[in-house]
Amino acid sequence: MSQQPITIVTGAASGIARHMTGVLAGMGHRIIATDINEEALKKGASEFGWDSSQVLLEKLDVRDAEQWKKIVDKAVKKWGRLDILMNIAGFAIQGFVHEFPLNHIDLHIDINAKGAILGTHFASVQMVKQGSGHIINMGSLAGLAPVPGTSLYCASKFALRGFSLAVSRELIPYGVHVTYVAPDLVDTPKLVTQLKFDEKAASVGFSAPKILTVKDIEKGLLKAMKKRPLEIAIPRHRGILCKIGSTFPGLASPLYSIMSKQGISSMAKERGKRVSQVKEDTPDTWVEKQAKK
Question: Given CB 3.0 to 4.6 Å as the disulfide criterion, which of 80, 168, 208, 242 pairs with 178?
Answer without folding.
Answer: 168
